[in-house]
Amino acid sequence: MIGSAHWLTDGTHKEIILRNVMERHLPETLKVCTGFVYKTNQISTQIDLLIINKSGYTLFKEGELVIVTPHAVRALVEVKTTCEGPSKLKETLKKLAENARLAEQEGVQNRGDFWCGLFVYESSQERHDELLEALSEAHSKGDFAIQCVALGPDIFAKFYTTGGPGPMWITHNCKNFAAGCFIADMLATLTDNPGISDFPILNKPILGGKVAPVSYICHGDTKPVRVESIVGK
C-alpha cells in the first residue's frame, strides 16, 4: 500500500506480521520482542525478532524494545523483505550467526533449547546452491550453525544433526509452504514437542509432492551437492 514511500515502515510492518504469527502459537512463557543481547563487554546488533523467557530478567525494557543477557534468550530471527544476490545473503547470514553465537553462550543453565533463523519474504527461484554456500560460510566465519532459512515462499533450508553422512543443511522446494516449515521447526525446538520435532512433512512424499529436497551441503564443506531424491532417508 505504501509502495516505496517509506521502506523502514514497510520492513517494520513485515516484522509485525511474523511476530503476530509467532505469538499466536508460542507458549505463554515466551515473549517476542526486538532488541539486543549483551554479554560482558559485547553487544549484538539489533535483532529483528528476539524470543525471550518471560521469567528471565532484562537489563532494559521499553515497550517491545529490550536489552537482555543470554540467560533470557530462546531464539533469534532476522527478517528481510528481500535478500537478493550472493554477497547480501552471505552478509546477512554471517551477522545472524555472530549474534546467535553471542546469545547461545555456553554455560547458560535452565534456559531451554536455543534456535535461530532467517525469514525472507520475497526471493527469486533456484537459489538452493547459493543459500547452502552462504550457510556454510556463515558457520565458518560466525562460529554458529543457523538452524533454518525461509527464502521466499518456496525455498526452505534446515540444519540436520543426524542422518546422512553427518551434520548438514538441506534445501527443499516447498511451493508456498516455506513459512509453515519455518514456524513448525521453531515451535519444535522451543516447545520440545516430539510430534512437531519428527517433522514428517520434510521426510515423506505428502502434499502431492509439494515438499521435496533439492540440494545439501555437509557441515564444513564449501560446495553443495544436488540430489535427485532423499525423501524418507
Secondary-structure map:
Elements (H helix, E strand, L loop, with lengths): L6 H19 L4 E10 L2 E2 L3 E7 L4 E5 L2 E4 L4 E10 L3 H19 L10 E8 L5 H15 L5 E4 L3 E6 L7 E6 L4 H14 L2 H4 L14 E7 L6 E2 L7
Parallel strand pairs: 1-5, 6-7, 7-8
Antiparallel strand pairs: 1-2, 1-3, 3-6, 4-5, 8-9, 9-10, 10-11, 11-12
Helix pairs in contact: 2-3
Q: What does this protein structure show overall?
A:
This protein has 233 residues and is α+β, with helices and mostly antiparallel strands. It is built from 5 helices and 12 strands. Strands 1, 2, 3, 4, 5, 6, 7, 8, 9, 10, 11 and 12 form a 12-stranded mixed sheet that branches. α2 crosses α3. The protein is globular and about 50 Å long. The model is unreliable at 195-199, 203-208 and 229-233 (pLDDT under 50).
Compact summary:
This protein is an alpha+beta fold and 233 residues long. The protein is 30% helix and 30% strand.
